[in-house]
Amino acid sequence: MRLKDKVTIITGAGQGIGRAYAIGFAKEGAKVVVADINFENAQKVTGEIFSLGGEALPVHVDVSDEKSTLDMARQVADKFGRIDVLINNAAIYYGLRLQPWNSYSVEEWDRVFAVNVRGTWLACKAVVPYMIAQGKGKIINISSGTVVVGIPFLLHYVTSKAAIVGLTRSLATELGDHGINVNCIAPGFTMSEASKTMEGKPPGFDEIVAAMQCFKRSQQPEDLVGTAIFLASEDSDFITGQFIAVDGGFTRSGG
Ligand SMILES: NC(=O)c1ccc[n+]([C@@H]2O[C@H](COP(=O)([O-])OP(=O)(O)OC[C@H]3O[C@@H](n4cnc5c(N)ncnc54)[C@H](O)[C@@H]3O)[C@@H](O)[C@H]2O)c1
Q1: Could you confirm whether 157 is annotated as catalytic?
Q2: pLDDT value at position 231?
Protein backbone atom coordinates (compact mmCIF):
# COMPACT_ATOMS: atom_id res chain seq x y z
CA MET A 1 0.00 0.00 0.00
CA ARG A 2 1.80 3.07 -1.29
CA LEU A 3 -0.44 5.64 0.45
CA LYS A 4 -1.19 3.98 3.78
CA ASP A 5 -3.06 6.45 6.01
CA LYS A 6 -2.26 9.47 3.80
CA VAL A 7 -5.09 11.92 4.29
CA THR A 8 -6.01 12.99 0.78
CA ILE A 9 -8.54 15.61 -0.25
CA ILE A 10 -9.81 15.14 -3.79
CA THR A 11 -12.04 17.94 -4.99
CA GLY A 12 -14.62 17.11 -7.63
CA ALA A 13 -14.41 13.45 -6.59
CA GLY A 14 -18.14 12.84 -6.92
CA GLN A 15 -17.91 11.65 -10.52
CA GLY A 16 -15.69 11.05 -13.53
CA ILE A 17 -11.93 11.20 -13.15
CA GLY A 18 -12.13 12.45 -9.54
CA ARG A 19 -14.09 9.34 -8.60
CA ALA A 20 -11.39 7.17 -10.21
CA TYR A 21 -8.67 8.96 -8.15
CA ALA A 22 -10.76 8.47 -4.99
CA ILE A 23 -11.19 4.73 -5.50
CA GLY A 24 -7.58 4.23 -6.63
CA PHE A 25 -6.25 6.13 -3.60
CA ALA A 26 -8.50 4.20 -1.21
CA LYS A 27 -7.14 0.92 -2.63
CA GLU A 28 -3.63 2.18 -1.80
CA GLY A 29 -4.65 2.75 1.83
CA ALA A 30 -5.29 6.51 1.75
CA LYS A 31 -7.95 8.14 3.90
CA VAL A 32 -9.90 9.80 1.11
CA VAL A 33 -11.89 13.00 1.44
CA VAL A 34 -14.48 12.93 -1.33
CA ALA A 35 -15.14 16.65 -1.74
CA ASP A 36 -17.69 17.89 -4.24
CA ILE A 37 -20.32 20.56 -4.80
CA ASN A 38 -22.67 17.63 -5.47
CA PHE A 39 -22.86 16.12 -1.98
CA GLU A 40 -25.11 13.27 -3.04
CA ASN A 41 -22.44 12.07 -5.49
CA ALA A 42 -19.74 12.53 -2.83
CA GLN A 43 -21.75 10.27 -0.52
CA LYS A 44 -22.16 7.66 -3.26
CA VAL A 45 -18.41 7.49 -3.92
CA THR A 46 -17.77 7.32 -0.17
CA GLY A 47 -20.15 4.34 -0.04
CA GLU A 48 -18.21 2.63 -2.84
CA ILE A 49 -14.98 3.11 -0.88
CA PHE A 50 -16.55 1.71 2.31
CA SER A 51 -17.72 -1.33 0.37
CA LEU A 52 -14.11 -1.91 -0.73
CA GLY A 53 -13.06 -1.81 2.95
CA GLY A 54 -11.49 1.66 2.61
CA GLU A 55 -11.78 4.84 4.67
CA ALA A 56 -13.45 7.98 3.31
CA LEU A 57 -15.24 11.15 4.31
CA PRO A 58 -17.76 12.93 2.08
CA VAL A 59 -17.54 16.72 2.23
CA HIS A 60 -19.68 19.33 0.55
CA VAL A 61 -17.50 22.07 -0.94
CA ASP A 62 -17.84 24.86 -3.47
CA VAL A 63 -14.19 25.50 -4.32
CA SER A 64 -15.00 28.94 -5.72
CA ASP A 65 -16.08 30.09 -2.25
CA GLU A 66 -13.41 30.82 0.37
CA LYS A 67 -15.59 30.10 3.40
CA SER A 68 -16.45 26.73 1.90
CA THR A 69 -12.80 25.73 1.23
CA LEU A 70 -11.80 26.83 4.75
CA ASP A 71 -14.66 24.74 6.19
CA MET A 72 -13.50 21.75 4.11
CA ALA A 73 -9.92 21.97 5.41
CA ARG A 74 -11.11 22.42 9.00
CA GLN A 75 -13.48 19.41 8.79
CA VAL A 76 -10.69 17.21 7.46
CA ALA A 77 -8.18 18.35 10.09
CA ASP A 78 -10.78 17.83 12.85
CA LYS A 79 -11.54 14.31 11.64
CA PHE A 80 -8.07 13.05 10.68
CA GLY A 81 -5.66 15.45 12.42
CA ARG A 82 -3.63 16.18 9.28
CA ILE A 83 -3.79 16.76 5.50
CA ASP A 84 -1.12 15.03 3.42
CA VAL A 85 -2.36 15.40 -0.15
CA LEU A 86 -4.63 17.78 -2.04
CA ILE A 87 -5.81 16.98 -5.57
CA ASN A 88 -7.38 20.03 -7.17
CA ASN A 89 -9.57 18.16 -9.62
CA ALA A 90 -12.86 20.10 -9.37
CA ALA A 91 -13.63 22.10 -12.47
CA ILE A 92 -16.36 23.30 -14.73
CA TYR A 93 -16.06 20.74 -17.52
CA TYR A 94 -19.25 18.67 -17.56
CA GLY A 95 -21.88 20.51 -19.58
CA LEU A 96 -19.44 22.65 -21.58
CA ARG A 97 -20.27 22.87 -25.26
CA LEU A 98 -17.71 23.22 -28.04
CA GLN A 99 -18.35 26.68 -29.49
CA PRO A 100 -16.40 29.58 -31.04
CA TRP A 101 -14.12 31.78 -28.95
CA ASN A 102 -16.35 34.89 -29.00
CA SER A 103 -19.65 33.20 -28.24
CA TYR A 104 -19.46 32.87 -24.43
CA SER A 105 -21.26 35.24 -22.10
CA VAL A 106 -19.08 37.13 -19.63
CA GLU A 107 -20.93 35.26 -16.86
CA GLU A 108 -19.95 31.86 -18.31
CA TRP A 109 -16.32 32.97 -18.77
CA ASP A 110 -16.18 34.21 -15.16
CA ARG A 111 -17.76 31.05 -13.72
CA VAL A 112 -15.21 28.83 -15.49
CA PHE A 113 -12.41 30.94 -14.03
CA ALA A 114 -14.02 31.15 -10.58
CA VAL A 115 -14.10 27.37 -10.25
CA ASN A 116 -11.12 26.20 -12.31
CA VAL A 117 -8.58 28.86 -11.33
CA ARG A 118 -9.77 30.68 -8.19
CA GLY A 119 -11.05 27.33 -6.85
CA THR A 120 -7.62 25.74 -7.18
CA TRP A 121 -5.99 28.72 -5.47
CA LEU A 122 -8.59 28.82 -2.65
CA ALA A 123 -8.26 25.10 -1.92
CA CYS A 124 -4.46 25.56 -1.71
CA LYS A 125 -4.92 28.63 0.50
CA ALA A 126 -7.11 26.63 2.90
CA VAL A 127 -4.98 23.48 3.03
CA VAL A 128 -1.38 24.72 2.85
CA PRO A 129 -1.25 26.05 6.45
CA TYR A 130 -1.80 22.48 7.69
CA MET A 131 0.92 21.20 5.35
CA ILE A 132 3.32 23.91 6.50
CA ALA A 133 2.68 22.93 10.13
CA GLN A 134 3.51 19.30 9.18
CA GLY A 135 6.62 20.37 7.20
CA LYS A 136 5.45 18.30 4.24
CA GLY A 137 2.60 17.99 1.76
CA LYS A 138 1.72 17.14 -1.82
CA ILE A 139 -0.46 19.25 -4.09
CA ILE A 140 -1.57 17.84 -7.42
CA ASN A 141 -3.29 20.29 -9.72
CA ILE A 142 -5.19 19.26 -12.82
CA SER A 143 -4.39 21.09 -16.04
CA SER A 144 -5.18 19.66 -19.48
CA GLY A 145 -3.44 18.60 -22.67
CA THR A 146 -5.67 21.12 -24.46
CA VAL A 147 -3.27 23.89 -23.38
CA VAL A 148 -0.34 22.29 -25.20
CA VAL A 149 -2.02 21.92 -28.56
CA GLY A 150 -4.45 24.85 -28.34
CA ILE A 151 -7.64 22.86 -28.87
CA PRO A 152 -10.27 25.14 -30.44
CA PHE A 153 -13.85 25.87 -29.33
CA LEU A 154 -13.28 25.74 -25.57
CA LEU A 155 -11.39 29.00 -25.14
CA HIS A 156 -12.47 29.84 -21.57
CA TYR A 157 -11.75 26.31 -20.39
CA VAL A 158 -8.39 25.99 -22.16
CA THR A 159 -7.28 29.40 -20.88
CA SER A 160 -8.27 28.45 -17.33
CA LYS A 161 -6.27 25.22 -17.57
CA ALA A 162 -3.25 27.14 -18.89
CA ALA A 163 -3.46 29.29 -15.74
CA ILE A 164 -3.05 26.11 -13.69
CA VAL A 165 0.40 25.59 -15.22
CA GLY A 166 1.57 29.03 -14.05
CA LEU A 167 -0.06 28.58 -10.66
CA THR A 168 1.69 25.22 -10.25
CA ARG A 169 5.14 26.55 -11.10
CA SER A 170 4.91 29.72 -9.01
CA LEU A 171 3.39 28.00 -6.01
CA ALA A 172 6.00 25.22 -6.18
CA THR A 173 8.68 27.91 -5.95
CA GLU A 174 7.03 29.61 -2.98
CA LEU A 175 6.35 26.38 -1.06
CA GLY A 176 9.64 24.56 -1.67
CA ASP A 177 11.13 25.76 1.59
CA HIS A 178 8.19 24.16 3.41
CA GLY A 179 8.76 20.73 1.86
CA ILE A 180 5.57 20.95 -0.18
CA ASN A 181 5.51 19.52 -3.71
CA VAL A 182 3.24 21.18 -6.25
CA ASN A 183 2.82 19.46 -9.61
CA CYS A 184 0.17 19.28 -12.27
CA ILE A 185 -1.19 16.43 -14.36
CA ALA A 186 -2.45 17.20 -17.85
CA PRO A 187 -4.95 14.53 -18.87
CA GLY A 188 -5.65 13.86 -22.50
CA PHE A 189 -9.19 13.56 -23.82
CA THR A 190 -10.61 11.12 -21.28
CA MET A 191 -13.84 9.18 -21.58
CA SER A 192 -15.56 10.51 -18.47
CA GLU A 193 -19.31 11.11 -18.78
CA ALA A 194 -18.49 14.79 -19.37
CA SER A 195 -16.35 14.04 -22.44
CA LYS A 196 -18.69 11.37 -23.75
CA THR A 197 -21.70 13.67 -23.69
CA MET A 198 -20.01 16.95 -24.70
CA GLU A 199 -22.20 18.89 -27.11
CA GLY A 200 -20.81 20.21 -30.36
CA LYS A 201 -18.37 17.33 -31.01
CA PRO A 202 -18.16 16.49 -34.71
CA PRO A 203 -19.06 12.88 -35.63
CA GLY A 204 -16.26 10.44 -34.87
CA PHE A 205 -14.40 12.96 -32.66
CA ASP A 206 -13.51 10.43 -29.92
CA GLU A 207 -12.01 8.03 -32.47
CA ILE A 208 -10.08 10.82 -34.25
CA VAL A 209 -8.45 11.85 -30.97
CA ALA A 210 -7.55 8.25 -30.14
CA ALA A 211 -5.98 7.83 -33.59
CA MET A 212 -3.72 10.87 -32.94
CA GLN A 213 -2.28 9.27 -29.80
CA CYS A 214 0.67 6.87 -29.76
CA PHE A 215 -1.59 4.39 -27.98
CA LYS A 216 -4.60 4.20 -30.25
CA ARG A 217 -7.43 3.62 -27.81
CA SER A 218 -9.58 6.09 -25.93
CA GLN A 219 -8.18 7.26 -22.60
CA GLN A 220 -10.14 6.11 -19.54
CA PRO A 221 -10.32 7.80 -16.10
CA GLU A 222 -8.34 4.87 -14.61
CA ASP A 223 -5.39 5.71 -16.92
CA LEU A 224 -4.71 8.79 -14.76
CA VAL A 225 -4.71 7.15 -11.37
CA GLY A 226 -1.17 5.70 -11.31
CA THR A 227 0.48 9.06 -11.98
CA ALA A 228 -1.57 10.71 -9.23
CA ILE A 229 -0.57 7.95 -6.80
CA PHE A 230 3.09 8.41 -7.75
CA LEU A 231 2.88 12.20 -7.24
CA ALA A 232 1.22 11.66 -3.84
CA SER A 233 3.75 9.06 -2.71
CA GLU A 234 7.25 9.38 -1.32
CA ASP A 235 8.64 8.10 -4.64
CA SER A 236 8.14 11.62 -6.06
CA ASP A 237 9.57 13.61 -3.14
CA PHE A 238 12.14 15.46 -5.32
CA ILE A 239 9.72 16.27 -8.14
CA THR A 240 8.02 19.67 -8.00
CA GLY A 241 6.78 22.43 -10.31
CA GLN A 242 6.23 19.91 -13.09
CA PHE A 243 3.66 19.52 -15.86
CA ILE A 244 3.08 15.84 -16.55
CA ALA A 245 1.00 14.88 -19.57
CA VAL A 246 -0.87 11.58 -19.18
CA ASP A 247 -2.46 11.18 -22.58
CA GLY A 248 -1.23 8.10 -24.44
CA GLY A 249 1.26 10.37 -26.22
CA PHE A 250 -1.30 12.79 -27.66
CA THR A 251 0.74 15.93 -26.94
CA ARG A 252 4.26 14.39 -27.06
CA SER A 253 5.57 17.60 -25.51
CA GLY A 254 6.12 19.58 -22.31
CA GLY A 255 3.82 22.30 -21.00
N1 LIG B 1 -12.29 14.40 -19.16
C2 LIG B 1 -11.31 14.94 -19.87
O3 LIG B 1 -11.16 14.69 -21.10
C4 LIG B 1 -10.34 15.89 -19.23
C5 LIG B 1 -9.20 16.29 -19.96
C6 LIG B 1 -8.31 17.16 -19.37
C7 LIG B 1 -8.53 17.61 -18.08
N8 LIG B 1 -9.64 17.21 -17.40
C9 LIG B 1 -9.84 17.71 -16.06
O10 LIG B 1 -9.96 16.62 -15.16
C11 LIG B 1 -10.86 16.96 -14.11
C12 LIG B 1 -12.00 15.97 -14.04
O13 LIG B 1 -12.62 15.85 -15.31
P14 LIG B 1 -14.01 15.08 -15.51
O15 LIG B 1 -14.09 14.72 -16.93
O16 LIG B 1 -14.16 14.05 -14.47
O17 LIG B 1 -15.02 16.31 -15.24
P18 LIG B 1 -16.46 16.40 -14.57
O19 LIG B 1 -17.04 17.70 -14.99
O20 LIG B 1 -17.22 15.15 -14.82
O21 LIG B 1 -16.13 16.42 -13.00
C22 LIG B 1 -15.88 17.61 -12.30
C23 LIG B 1 -16.33 17.43 -10.85
O24 LIG B 1 -16.12 18.70 -10.20
C25 LIG B 1 -17.28 19.01 -9.44
N26 LIG B 1 -17.39 20.46 -9.30
C27 LIG B 1 -17.78 21.35 -10.25
N28 LIG B 1 -17.81 22.60 -9.73
C29 LIG B 1 -17.41 22.47 -8.43
C30 LIG B 1 -17.24 23.41 -7.38
N31 LIG B 1 -17.49 24.72 -7.55
N32 LIG B 1 -16.80 22.97 -6.19
C33 LIG B 1 -16.57 21.63 -5.98
N34 LIG B 1 -16.73 20.70 -6.95
C35 LIG B 1 -17.15 21.13 -8.15
C36 LIG B 1 -18.44 18.40 -10.22
O37 LIG B 1 -19.59 18.22 -9.42
C38 LIG B 1 -17.82 17.09 -10.71
O39 LIG B 1 -17.99 16.07 -9.76
C40 LIG B 1 -11.29 18.40 -14.40
O41 LIG B 1 -10.41 19.29 -13.74
C42 LIG B 1 -11.11 18.51 -15.89
O43 LIG B 1 -10.95 19.84 -16.29
C44 LIG B 1 -10.54 16.37 -17.96
Answers
A1: yes
A2: 99
Q: Phi/psi of residue 10, each to 5°?
A: -120, 110
> How much is the pLDDT for 254?
55
**Strand order across the 55-60 sheet:** 55-60, 31-36, 7-11, 85-88, 137-142, 180-187, 243-246
Residues of the domain holding 129: 7-246
206 and 218 Cβ atoms separated by less than 8 Å: yes
Please report the pLDDT score of residue 81 as a whole number.
98
Number of domains in the chain: 1
Cα 177 to averaged position of ligand 1 atoms, centre (Å): 30
Q: Which residue in the list 21, 93, 130, 157 is annotated as catalytic?
A: 157
Q: Whose CA is nearest to atom 11 of ligand 1?
A: 89
Domain at 41, CATH number: 3.40.50.720
pTM summary value:
0.98
Report the atom number in ligand 1 closest to the C-alpha of 114: 31
Assigned domain for 47 exists: yes
Ligand 1 site, residue 184, Cβ cutoff 6 A: no
Ligand 1 binding pocket includes 230 (Cβ within 6 Å): no
Which ranges of the chain have pLDDT less than 70?
253-255
Q: What is the pLDDT of residue 253?
A: 65
Partnered with residue 139 across adjacent β-strands are 86, 182
